[in-house]
Amino acid sequence: MRKLFALTIFVMLSASQLMAQSRTLTGKVTDAKDGTPLASASVLSQDGKYGTKTDANGAFTISIPASVKALVISTVGFTNQTLNIGSSSSYSILLKREDVALTEVVVTSLGITKEKRAINYSTQTLKSAEIADRGEVNVVNALQGKIAGVSITGASGSAGASTNINIRGITSFTGNNQPLFVIDGVPISNDVDRTNGGPLGTLGDNQPANRAMDIDINNIETINVMKGPAASVLYGSRAASGAIIITTKKGGKAGGGAQVILNSAYSAQTVTGLPELQNKYGQGVNGTFNPISTSSWGPAFGSTPSVANGLLIGGVAQAYNPYPNNIRDFYQTGTILDNSLTINGGDAKQNYTFSLSNLNQTGILPNTGVNRTSVKFGANTVLRDKIRLGGSMTVTNTLQDGILGGNGNSSLGILSGIARNIDLTSYRVNGTYKNPDGSNNWLIPNQDNPYFDAYEDPLKSNLYRFIGNINVGYDITSWLTVAYRLGADIYTDRRKQIFAVTSARVPGGQVVENTISRSEINGDLTLTAKKDHFLFDKLNFSALLGQNLNQRLFQNVYLQGDNLAFPGFYNISNATVLTNGSGEATTKQRLIGYYAQASFNYDNYLFVELTGRADRSSTLPEINNTYFYPSVTTGFVFTDAFKINSNILSYGKLRASYAKVGRDAGPYLLANTYASWGFGNNVANFNFPLGTTAGFGVSSRIAPVTLSPEFTSSIEFGINLGFFKNRVTVDAAYYDADSKDQIINVAIPSSTGYSTKTTNVGEMTNKGVELLLNVAIIKNRNFSWDVSANYTKNVNKVVSIAPGVDNFGIPGSAFIGSIPSIKVGYPYGVIIGGVIPKSPVNGQRLINPATGVFQPSVAGQVLSDPNADYKIGLTNNFKYKNYSLGFTFDFTKGGQILSFTAATYKSRGIWAPTAEDRDKPRILPGEILDATGKYIPNNIQIPAQTYWQTLGGLQSEFNVYDATVFRMRELSFGYDISQELVRKLKIGGLRFSIFARNLFYVAPNAFFDPEVNTQGAGNIRGLELQSAPNARTIGANLKLTF
Amino acid sequence: MKKLLIIVLALSVFTTSCKKYLDVNNSPNNPLAVPPSTILPTATIAMAFANSNDLNRVTSAISQHIAGVANQTAAYDVYLLDGSFDNQWNSEIYVGAINNLQILINQYGTTSPAYSGIAKLEMAYTFSMATDLWGDVPYSQAGQGLKFEQPRFDKVADIYQGNASLGITSLFDLVKSGLADLDKPSLLKPGKDDLIYKGDLTKWKRMGNSLLLKFAIHISNVAPDLAKTIFTQVTTGNNYINSNTLDFEVPFGVSTGNQNPIYSFNYVNRNGDQQMSARLLTLSRSLNDTVRLSKFFTKPNGIFTGYDNGSTAVPLTISARSQYNTYLVGVSGEAPIRLLTNFQSYFNIAEGSLLFGLGTPAAQAAYQAGITASMLKVGMLQSEIDNYFATNPSVVTLSGTMEDMRKQIITQKYIAWIGNGIEAFNDFRRTGYPVLALALNAQGDDPNTIPTRLVYTPGELSRNPNAPSPRPKTNVKLWWAK
């Protein structure tokens, strides 16, 4: 087909050349700045049919038919120029230098657009082409590997699972550390709403989405990542962790007409990162077959059945064969079908946009998926040349079907230890995972068949979301503008979680109806003044005054029905106990902010910007509820100031900023309250009321005497350099941020009667370096090669917590023995657990001389640190004629993960190495204290089973792995049909592309893919609690414009 | 310009209404105050839950009532205790029970002393549980919120005997103060919110006296004079729990979330983790006491099956294991958690009679009354009891040296307390009875010694600089221990 296209084009070209009546033009192309002749500049007829190049003196001669009315002259590093051909046959053309990327306009806080050179802090922009058509469902994942200073880790490959994003590290001990998401000037929720995953709590849930997943990536025009407090100070406390400014596609570019874009993508997903399994030994312990064992320490496959090895029962030989793919086959091939229609129309003044999209994903886990449909309409108009009116609204429906994960009786928890001889697939194929009466069918007592759990214990979410904004602007005078923007983000997520009767986690059955609603209304009134040549010549000045009103509402209605009267009917009316955890939580918080900004620009090389914001918050005591915070930023383009005119150094800017951002408290922290009480955890629990007797108790959190806002202050230095006519650009930043007086529910000794107290304490610092390097290695008419590389290093340190408090657990942790913690002197989020004591001499682990296994571990020590040393991202983009190829690699060095799955693979004897020399005894590495008081190397032999079970302790240091990983993040290969054919087909364009995500990874120090995190978006990192592994996506995209 | 003025004006009008706009910080989710009738059940369940949940499992394993087969209980069984008990120390004892009791005392001590009286008795019980398990614990400064942000760890001796110079009220005085409150006129009186005695304060007085009796015997090794004084006061006062119907026991329910923790653990969530100890089975058989044993533990297919403490042997399938029976778990988890009982009073009187010279006959009478009370309590028929007494005279008759007799009493008490490991663990450490052998494959702080205390919790150790550091090892005996 492509050959046919090429042939057609060739024939057409030749024919037209033969037929044309030609004339000859001459000309000279020079640099507009200094008159240097430009060699090898391209001179092309506007229709692209005729072309030549300038010689060493910048001169050219071209023969063209009379029908050609214009020539386009272009060369690397200069702005293209269109030459309208008049009667003359000789022309001189002056080309202006272009500042690649440096004349870019960037959308900053409050939708204010700024020239990139006038921005004195670190931001980075991605365009639609860099994120769309790559098979990604969640916009946060689409940023992976591309932004300096940002750390992004997905929960897993489960459909709709949330993704954590932290910009420049974590700044708040217990608050939300995700950046603020803003769409078209409206702050929106990126919260993760969790529905209790049964007795295990949130770490056993279905990995719900972070709500930025409701955004249709196809409809994004640009994403600007505002990194430090200086960047986001106008958004106030909400953006203390940075901001992601998303601008969606708008009408008005079609020059009055309408542009229709149809986009369709299909991709397939498969599971990746599963460890290698052994297929030599089956179910049992100590070499004896046991059909109800959860381990594979049984006899070797092929053993002669005997009573001793358990394979001969009542004279009958038991079926005993390996099923090598019984775990892998649990995962299915997922699919994503993503279709969208966009219509953009109008001109710069009156325009509209409409889009309709649907994304339908079937997950790699059975009975999971995401189905997202959204409709958007937006329009802008200018009335009487003075009043600008605009707005847009998007309605989205997102369905997410999930299954529970987590240690214990979730399908994934069970799956991670399935014995090698269990024919798991047959349960699905034959539908025998449940008995005819609907109950769980599984040989192992107190455990679910993984398929039973997946199909009978689902969690379904059905969310409707409205995001809208209205803008009105009025030019009072030529230099003064007033504007108002009202935005709303409102959603309701109705969820239903079911535990079938006989489920191991909730044998009596359970139905949960959970309705989660959030709404945020945000209004900004701004007054903007602009004056060039202010006070004196060359000084341009602009000022902004604004007021912000913000209200956030949250409601979580949770109705839990236990002890279903009969199986198979999942309505709350079938429950006989409704009191466990049922209740409602509502919060409302409001904020009024006032802000002002003054920007000075001297001769377009010296920039100074002063910003201040004062907030009044409903959540702080009245005496402290007004707080002010400023920022100062400066930028100095020294290449312009000193008139450096070098072919090597084309652009140089130094920048420095100081910013402070205040953050208010959460709602309702100021008073002591009472609550209906409950005790216990997943092994035994109690909830009031007891029959008809209510039980309330005072909250375990004690209210503060007083409370003031918390502040993060940050200093940033940066440099932008452009070399070789800006074909090489460097953007480097160093920052040092200090977060103090954090508002936290700090742990206090429970002997006070309270577990936590709300107070201002603690200090945490983040220091880091970001580098962004863009190189246009090759750039000519037919071929270009661009490279973008980024480097991120952040060092976090908890300086202090509260007097007498050395550490406390990050809220949400579920397992005693491996607690993600905040610990003085360590980076945020280290996991505290038990560590085996070491010999004082050689530092070897101590072995119990009686048993040959390790001495018991000592609790309360740092087990692992999830913080990576650094991250590198590398993107290559090639363009050859109509073909384009882009791929992104990323590399994460360091950081640790505690993997329950790794532990299970060892202790249950299913990991491949556990089968090696299983019949031979082993010796654990370590030292024993001998009778003479000397430490000698351990020489006590233990069976392989004991050896691996020792190393497979669920929370042991042996299951902490270095998470260093190199990954081919994404690959995209596209073909745009030629302009010729476009015209012929009377369409606007047709692009076909194929893409892949997570094509492969190399994790040198882990036998599984370490880039997972069971909690997903949140402050708990580096814990894998038997949740889903990652997925690989491969697909194709077709984009038709007309 | 006029328009600008209007905007500024509108803005300033708005600003004045700011205060109202921002006044939305009162929680609709949680009340700021609740009646005492809703707090008392919480504190009561907290006390019972603490007694019967994880602390019961660890002490039942160490005392060899049960053996750990898997998971946490198996670790406890070989004395791996480090890193545990945060939930018990935190949410069950200090936050759940002590703090809510403190609120009842502080808020209702003047107006409604019926509530503060009961609260003091429950508080004394709960604190004794904590100090008996851990030794020095926060006591006089505990549960006071921000008044003492790092509560002092009071010495065991000071907790039991008081220490005026440190401002420590003894447990005895705390109980007496509670008993005194019960006699005062009270505006509000508990009714059905008193889960145990339904508002019958006379029964609470009996509970208070039985508690004094328990404390007296508990410190008899180290403070015999004080013990004797209290013992005499209680026995002559004759107002203690002297009938099974007066037992201090906390009821639970049959529905999910209301069941007692023994049931919830063993029959709902972790039914594969623990089993009857093979050593207990041996003991019971040696005493021909298996009828009573069958009330405590199931007999699958008519056979008792025990698991040795610390064993790594392949366990039987769950359905074949002897597990807690209905006396302890009810039919659906509704069995009460028994904290202070009639049989306990009798055994205490029996032991006190020996210790304080009241003579063997008095001890003998109380001893037999204790055995009978226990057997009736677990549901043995009178005929079965009579038969046992008739066929096992050497068991039911105290004989030999005083120490021999004490051993007999504590052994009977040990059996009677199956299901409440804390009491068995207390008596074992205090008297050395019954003689227990080390668990197989013992590990922990000292693999050669049965633990004599629990280890402090990671939470308290990391948050309270007053916590003993380094924490005492599990082989360091408590003040009152033998």
Polypeptide structure, described:
The complex is a heterodimer of chains A (1042) and B (482). Chain A is mainly beta and 1042 residues long. Chain A folds into 2 domains: 94 residues, Carboxypeptidase-like, regulatory domain (Immunoglobulin-like, Sandwich), CATH 2.60.40.1120; 699 residues, Maltoporin, Chain A. Helix content of chain A is 7%, strand content 48%. Chain A is globular. The N terminus of chain A is likely disordered. Chain B has 482 residues and is mainly α. Chain B has a single domain, classed as Serine Threonine Protein Phosphatase 5, Tetratricopeptide repeat, CATH 1.25.40.390. Helix content of chain B is 53%, strand content 4%. Chain B is built from 22 helices and 6 strands. Chain B has a two-stranded antiparallel sheet with strand order 1-5. In chain B, helix 3 runs antiparallel to helix 6 and helix 4 crosses helix 5. The longest helix of chain B is centred in the first third of the chain and has 23 residues. The mean pLDDT of chain B is 95.
List keywords for this structure.
heterodimer; A: about 1050 residues; mainly beta; 2 domains; 22-stranded antiparallel beta barrel; five-stranded mixed sheet; 10 helices; 57 strands; globular; disordered N terminus; B: about 475 residues; mainly alpha; Serine Threonine Protein Phosphatase 5, Tetratricopeptide repeat; two-stranded antiparallel ribbon; 22 helices; 6 strands
List segments of chain B where confidence is low: pLDDT < 50 over at least 5 consecutive residues: none
The largest sheet of chain B, given as strand count, sense and whether it forms a barrel, is: 2 strands, antiparallel
What is the average per-residue confidence, as pLDDT of chain B, rounded to a whole number?
95
Oligomer, anyone? heterodimer
SS strand fraction of chain A: over 45%
- Over all CA atoms, what is the radius of gyration of chain A? 32 Å
Question: What order do the helices and strands of chain B follow?
Answer: HHHHEHHHEEHHHHEHEHHHEHHHHHHH
Q: Would you state the CATH class of chain B?
A: Mainly Alpha
Characterize the biggest β-sheet of chain A. Answer: 22 strands, antiparallel, barrel
Please estimate the helix content of chain A. Answer: under 10%
Please name the two chains that share the biggest interface, counting residues whose Cβ lies under 8 Å from a Cβ on the partner chain. A-B, 98 and 98 residues
- In the CATH scheme, what's the topology name of chain B? Serine Threonine Protein Phosphatase 5, Tetratricopeptide repeat
Write down the overall mean pLDDT of chain A. 90
Task: Give the class of chain B from helix and strand content and strand pairing.
Answer: mainly alpha
SS element count, helices of chain B: 22
Estimated helix fraction of chain B: 40-55%
Could you tell me the number of beta strands of chain B? 6
Please name the CATH architecture of the largest domain in chain A: Beta Barrel
CATH topology of the largest domain in chain A: Maltoporin, Chain A
